[in-house]
Amino acid sequence: MNTPSETTEVRRIQPYQASKTYVCGGCNNPIPPATGHLVIVPAESPDLRRHWHHSCWERRDRLGNR
Ligand SMILES: [Zn+2]
Predict the structure, then answer these.
(1) Distance from the CA of 55 to the center of ligand 1, in angstroms?
(2) Which of 49, 47, 41, 33 lies closest to 7, judged by CA?
(3) Cα(25) to centroid(ligand 1), Å
(4) From the CA of 19, how far away is ligand 1's center (Å)?
(5) What domain range is 37 assigned to?
(6) Total domain count for the chain?
(7) Residue 1 included in any domain
(8) pLDDT tens profile 7-58
(9) Does the residue 36 lie in any domain?
(10) pTM of the predicted model, to two decimals?
């Protein structure tokens, strides 16, 4: 149960849960159906949740420390 920040919830979406195409909040490319990915939910504004590729989220995490 690791959360990168105290105000953001990261939910893991399994391939069988992804029933449609989403747009990645990191690279703006589509995430095809049946692809495992992440949902990022800001605690203060759950309506603004975004879907992310695993790789994009990890890259953002590293870049966020500059
Ligand atoms: Zn992406």
Answers:
(1) 7
(2) 41
(3) 7
(4) 17
(5) 8-63
(6) 1
(7) no
(8) 889 999 999 999 999 999 999 999 999 999 999 999 999 999 999 999 999 9
(9) yes
(10) 0.79
